[in-house]
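Sequence in, structure out. First:
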Amino acid sequence: MLKFKHLLSILVLAVSANVVASGVSMEMFQMKRQINLLTNAQTAEEFTQNADKFIEVSKKAQATMPNSLDGDQEKFKGYQQGMQEVIDVVAQAKNLASQGNLTEAKTVIARLDSLRKLYHSVYK
């Protein structure tokens, strides 16, 4: 039983270390999931709810320095500005959806793909 507890403790520690070391990986995965939900939303209400979740996760990612920046504060500022641009696009789309313009909101969301490609090339 004692060996099992030790093994379990080591496993929990290893998993925890991997989660901490991942930087913003989890948030980025969640953002990708939310983009898919935004794109496939059938109603303005569904779109708005998913936009709120996207913004929440994006703000967490914005506050966390990616491991790829190796502690470079100057690059981190640029990363944060890029994340703010992404958040602003989703906020704009959310506003359109809340006014009943779901099609326009989805058109605005389509800009996220080009932003993702741009910022991933710089900060990933």
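Second:
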Amino acid sequence: SESYPQLQYHHHALDGPPNRADPYTMQSTRSASPASTSNSGGRSSFTELQVPRTTLARPNSAHTLGADLDPRGRKHSSHLSVGGSPSPRGFARNASATRLSTDARPVSYIDQLSYMPPAPNLDNSFLRAAVGSNASLLDSKRTLEMYRANVKKTNDPKVQHEFAKMLVQMAKDQLRHIPPTDAERRARQDLLKEAKEILTRAASRGHDESQYYLGDGFFTGLFNKDKEDWTKAYELFQSATKQGHKEAAFRAALCTEFGWGTSIDYAKAREFFRASASWGHPGAATRFGKACITGDLGLIGRQFQREGIRWLGIAARKADEQYNAGPYELGLLHEVGYGDAFYDEEYAAQLYTESAKFGHPEANLRMGRAYELGQLNCPKDAALSIHYYNGAAQAGNAEGMMGLVAWYLVGAPPTLEANDMEAYEWAKRAAERGFAKAQYLVGYFLERGIGCRSDPLEANVWYVKAADQGQEQAIERLKLIREAAAGGAHGLPETEKKKGLL
């Protein structure tokens, strides 16, 4: 299947579940695809904390158009995938031969860490074939001139499109300083201007990839001096859709759903979503399937709920690193039993594992809990629980971070030694993301000096933040502190130092 750059949008969850028992009262993904600045499910930009002796470093990924793309335009996942050979019986259950699943449950936590995503290929081999093998021996400026000269000699829109993408990547690489120098800004704008002109010519000749790429550039402001032009973007998405471009159809659907560059039109949105999904787009299949089940976009009725399950099945089979929510959403249905989605916790676990493999935060969180508590017919397995919590945490999920906090407080030898300092650091990461329970916990750690220097004043700041969100433990703690200040008893007994925190 074809690959495309990361989407630049946020999708908001729907209000009002259907009248019948609805699995979407569970924590469902909030985006049709991972947003570049968020979760669907998208990746966070916070500085990663490494779990000592238990994780490998995860490569950073930028989410701007043309950044770190492979030759086909798709970014590689920054999340550790679940891989490995099938597990022996007694450690984890065998994979079903008749159901959607990953290869099998990993043999061990260490085996899972051995998988690393493929490195992006940015050698411009598509263009180099037209220049010659000696191009690699030239400096970048002379190589660019050789590429430019050869592109001018051809009328092939594919070659022109690839050259334009290379110019976009070079434009990104110009910004080496923070803030960028005037020379860097000028060089960047010159490269983007040239790329825009080349893409415009190719798009005018009906090249669908150029139409989509140019549209995405207008949507993000990349080709318009950082000023978004959603109207122009929507027009280009429409043009590419007429030629069967599934990603452009998906983007056009989002534009008509949310009124980006055009008026809100749910009828058109349904048409675009259905077309893109029928062409095998996992993001469109996920969004359209959820709309059918929740009654959104005017899709109300039992027949649409049945159709929604079918579309989610397609999304689950087509899922990848960029659109990884399909298996998770279908798993939510099978975990509780919903309509034609029969009740099967084991199958739900397989679907969650599939999404987690592609870096879905909530799927990683769900499997972390399953292996911690022995849910979904999974055995209690500290190593796998830590692995999945870590996957959620690295994706910016605050509850996943709190899962790691719990494991660091108690330890799970030999996989993970207890480490109060790491527990504090992960709790602080979650607290900085506004998670009320983590804010209370950071305050408690600071008050007691658990994993950090004792600082009652700073602890009080975090208690107040948590209490402002209605966190009951923080409210009670502030009450005790006020009583102590007035001459009452202060604090909890030392024997309660780590009990009942999580």
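Remark: The two ends are 44 Å apart (CA to CA).
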